[in-house]
Amino acid sequence: MLRAAAGQLSQVIRGSFGVSRLAAIGAVRNSSHSTETDAEFDARYEAYFNRNEIDGWEARKAMNDLLGMDLVPEPKIVIAGLKACRRLNDYALAIRWLEGIKDSCGPHVDTIWPYMVQEIRPTLTELGIETPEELGYNQPELALKSVYEL
């Protein structure tokens, strides 16, 4: 009962001062909006991956954030991420990063992924990293033939 009375009292006070909850929320959301160009975005993530003191958690966090966005990272960001994996001595993370990038290509994987591999091939060779296809990860190891193929 006390909670209900306090809630009604707060609504009366807000109404008397002219404070609208929705207007306050909109003002906060609009004030935190930043305008960052694509070049600034790329430079920010490239610099983040190029830090010498980056640890495994930070690398995974940045990679997860990038893969969670509705975009395919630029090849220079992918190269910086692969070099960070090499500094961390984490080959598995590099392979998962490549798998995630291929997955983020979506329905355009036939056009975007070959371009990406072409652009990052020198770095892959330099670091000794193979693509998921070269490792055979694109084919399941113990998959059975479909009943329609028998």
From TrEMBL:
<dbReference type="Pfam" id="PF02284">
    <property type="entry name" value="COX5A"/>
</dbReference>
<dbReference type="GO" id="GO:0006123">
    <property type="term" value="P:mitochondrial electron transport, cytochrome c to oxygen"/>
</dbReference>
<keyword id="KW-0349">Heme</keyword>
<keyword id="KW-0496">Mitochondrion</keyword>
<dbReference type="GO" id="GO:0045277">
    <property type="term" value="C:respiratory chain complex IV"/>
</dbReference>
<comment type="pathway">
    <text>Energy metabolism; oxidative phosphorylation.</text>
</comment>
<keyword id="KW-0597">Phosphoprotein</keyword>
<comment type="similarity">
    <text>Belongs to the cytochrome c oxidase subunit 5A family.</text>
</comment>
<dbReference type="InterPro" id="IPR036545">
    <property type="entry name" value="Cyt_c_oxidase_su5A/6_sf"/>
</dbReference>
<dbReference type="InterPro" id="IPR003204">
    <property type="entry name" value="Cyt_c_oxidase_su5A/6"/>
</dbReference>
<protein>
    <recommendedName>
        <fullName>Cytochrome c oxidase subunit 5A, mitochondrial</fullName>
    </recommendedName>
</protein>
<keyword id="KW-0809">Transit peptide</keyword>
<keyword id="KW-0832">Ubl conjugation</keyword>
<keyword id="KW-0999">Mitochondrion inner membrane</keyword>
<dbReference type="GO" id="GO:0046872">
    <property type="term" value="F:metal ion binding"/>
</dbReference>
<keyword id="KW-0479">Metal-binding</keyword>
<keyword id="KW-0408">Iron</keyword>
<comment type="function">
    <text>Component of the cytochrome c oxidase, the last enzyme in the mitochondrial electron transport chain which drives oxidative phosphorylation. The respiratory chain contains 3 multisubunit complexes succinate dehydrogenase (complex II, CII), ubiquinol-cytochrome c oxidoreductase (cytochrome b-c1 complex, complex III, CIII) and cytochrome c oxidase (complex IV, CIV), that cooperate to transfer electrons derived from NADH and succinate to molecular oxygen, creating an electrochemical gradient over the inner membrane that drives transmembrane transport and the ATP synthase.</text>
</comment>
<comment type="subunit">
    <text>Component of the cytochrome c oxidase (complex IV, CIV), a multisubunit enzyme composed of a catalytic core of 3 subunits and several supernumerary subunits. The complex exists as a monomer or a dimer and forms supercomplexes (SCs) in the inner mitochondrial membrane with ubiquinol-cytochrome c oxidoreductase (cytochrome b-c1 complex, complex III, CIII).</text>
</comment>
<dbReference type="GO" id="GO:0005743">
    <property type="term" value="C:mitochondrial inner membrane"/>
</dbReference>
<keyword id="KW-0472">Membrane</keyword>
